[in-house]
Amino acid sequence: MAELITTARPYAQAAFGFAKENNQLNQWFELLNNLALLANDEAMAKLIANPSISSEDKISVFTGILGADVTAHAKNLLTAMAEHGRLGVLGHVALLFGQLKTAEDKRVKAFVVSALEPTVEQKSKLSAALNSKFNAQVDIEYQVDQALISGLRIKVGDWVVDNTAHTQLQKLRAAIAN
User: Fold this and answer.
1) Residue 152 pLDDT more than 80?
2) Beta-sheet strand order (sheet of 137-144)
3) Nearby residues of 171 by Cβ (< 8 Å), 6 or more positions away
4) pLDDT confidence of residue 171
5) What pTM does this model have?
6) Planar angle of CA 3, 102, 17, nearest 5 degrees
7) Going by DSSP bridges, is the β-strand pair 152-156/137-144 parallel, antiparallel, or unpaired?
8) What does the buried/exposed string (b/e) look like for 36-74 if buried means 16 or more CB atoms within 10 Å of the residue's CB?
9) Which residues are registered as beta bridge partners of 108?
10) Taking a C-beta distance cutoff of 8 angstroms, is the pair 11, 80 a contact?
11) What is the mean pLDDT of residues 5-22?
């Protein structure tokens, strides 16, 4: 997974830079998500992975399905990716582009997993703390996982805080084993 993200990152950054410079962030966000959906289709994934099919033919399938949505600049991105055998990471390009767009919009997505459902007051305090820490509007997605026993795991981009009892027990187990 990390390798795919690393491969996708320069394409996402290039697309984001172009889209931002041309005030087309929303259009590119939608286009990249559509390209990612198409690339993740099972039949399309086989076509992308088939080395006997030329890059031009692969791109023509994308442009044939999405039509005028694939602008000349978007076609340039597809061509660069196809020539380097990278069309398979379109989903990661869309994901990274979305993260860059969210940061640009001064919005941050956070994922919080806890053993118990947080109260309204806890959610409010956590939201205020995260908004302050990231100096942005943090959209929080909550999930309950009773296997954590107690505590929280918070993930915002690459930043992770894990103070769950489950993780502490795993660390203790590893320390005893060594």
Assistant:
1) yes
2) 137-144, 107-114, 152-156, 159-162
3) none
4) 92
5) 0.66
6) 70
7) unpaired
8) bebbeeeebeebbeeeeeebeebbeebeeeeeeebeeeb
9) 138
10) yes
11) 95
**Would you state the structure tokens that stand for residue 159, as one six-digit string?**
């930043």
For residues 135-170, one letter each, b for 16 or more C-beta atoms within 10 angstroms of the residue's C-beta and e for the rest, the string is ebebebeeeeeeebeebbbbebeeeeeeebebeeee
DSSP string covering 102-169: HHHTTEEEEEEEESSPPPHHHHHHHHHHHHHHHTSEEEEEEEE-GGG-SSEEEEETTEEEE--HHHHH
Tell me which amino acid residue 45 is: A
37 in Cβ contact with 90 (< 8 Å): no
Write out the H or E segment, with its range, that includes residue 29: helix 25-39
